[in-house]
What we know:
This protein is of the alpha+beta class. The chain is 46% helix and 10% strand. The longest helix is centred in the first third of the chain and has 29 residues, at 29-57.
Amino acid sequence: MANRGDVVDSTIHVVTPENIAFQYELAGPWRRLPAFVIDVALRGLVIVALTMAFAFLGSFSIGLVFPLINLTWFVLEWFYGGLFEAYWNGQTPGKRAMGLRVLTTDGRPINGLQAVLRNILRAVDLMPLLPLSMLYEEFPPQGMVPTFMFGLIAMTMNHRFQRLGDIVCGTMVVVEERRWLFEVAKIDDPRAAQLAEYIPPNFKINRQLARALAMYVERRRFFKQARRREIARHIAQPLVERFRLPNDTSYDLMLCSLYHRAFIADRRDEDTVIADPTRTPFAPTATNAAGASFAPVRPAQSVSTEATSAVPTEAANDATSPSSNVH
């Protein structure tokens, strides 16, 4: 299914190919203006600080100082926004201060090429330039001030508030969420907590993955087992391979264990009861699969062949589905 985005007022609903829906608040031109001013001010402060440093040192010739300042200005002007957005996951210092972030139109993080290109194309959005001599005759004719007309016209005529650089790169600016829309769900299947022990401790769950996990676990109770496998496979399959878990590890259980790791494990002293650590999350015993009893294997941070020799097949996961509800 193709990605699609439906806009209601300043809120956009994005549906991914995995049929997972996200909701974002779009940032209009006036909300983006303070972030732009902050970034321009920071670039100006760098130039001023560099100039004052050269003046204080006094050991550089004029012929060397001006090229260095011009080079610094060139790098800041053309690559400041692109490099920050590439390495700060769609944010510059100004956007971070104002709670904004750049995403693709299908709700995914932008890549380095999109980050650099959309910032280079800002030069077009700033057009046309207005000579300062039209305002004050004292200014030299070379002095120009941007009017932002091209960018503003594009944003007001676009339902995603995209300027020309955003349209070319397939990006949009959204308001960073400050809180979760869902309460922490309760996972009744004890295998989720046990499988979470097999996730490497150095694996970090970023904001996008945590949000997807929260929405999946919140809605999974409305899906049948086959639909759960279909949706969970897109996220869980690469992680199963990365963690070197058995190939037939339940994808639905994998996402539940990641959810447990992200939202419940840190609160287990208050909200959860730790399951018996001598039980494995992988295989229910053949004698009582519906009751979800487990083979006595102690969890480890890395999964050995012996510990995962009897893994839960999808059929076994179906058998234990009555105890896998989320409330």
